[in-house]
Amino acid sequence: MKTRILIETLTGHCAALREQLAPLAEHPTLTPRFDRQLFRCRSAKMGDYLQEAEHNLAALCSAVDAGETEKVAWLAEHLVNQMAALSREAATWQLRSHDSAHLYSGRLHRQLLQHQEYERRLVEMCQQRRQQWRDAQQFDTQQRLAREVTALEGRLSRCREALDKIERRIARRTR
Known about the structure:
This protein has two domains: 2-94, Substrate Binding Domain Of Dnak, Chain:A, Domain 2 (Up-down Bundle); 106-174, Methane Monooxygenase Hydroxylase, Chain G, domain 1, CATH 1.20.58. It is built from five helices and no strands.
């Protein structure tokens, strides 16, 4: 009984974490973020770490079904640690704007990180305005919010174009 509640709680936290990490799941970092004992993954993308945590959640569910209590205890603790690390990383993402100062092309990497942060914030703002638009009752409010969503989508597309340009410049320098 307690294991089912644990699994339901962890599944809920994992879903919330997926939503929290969605804007930055595909943004590459300059170096792997986590200790090898915490994650096997050595990726530079947060989404890959989240996938590993979700894989461990599936392994936990199968261990519960198989009745392997020691494995359940270890996987549950490990999964909680992974989810806490991912949550901390998502919360401190904004503090990593000067992550690449030691690199030759540090200025470009700083620009890349800055534009990735702009993109993340624009995506959040766009989602908020869309939700407000759906919830709006008055016609003039709906029109205003529709204009704001359109403007934000334009800014987001220009931001993504700038990101592509910066990524191409970095790729040219590293060839």
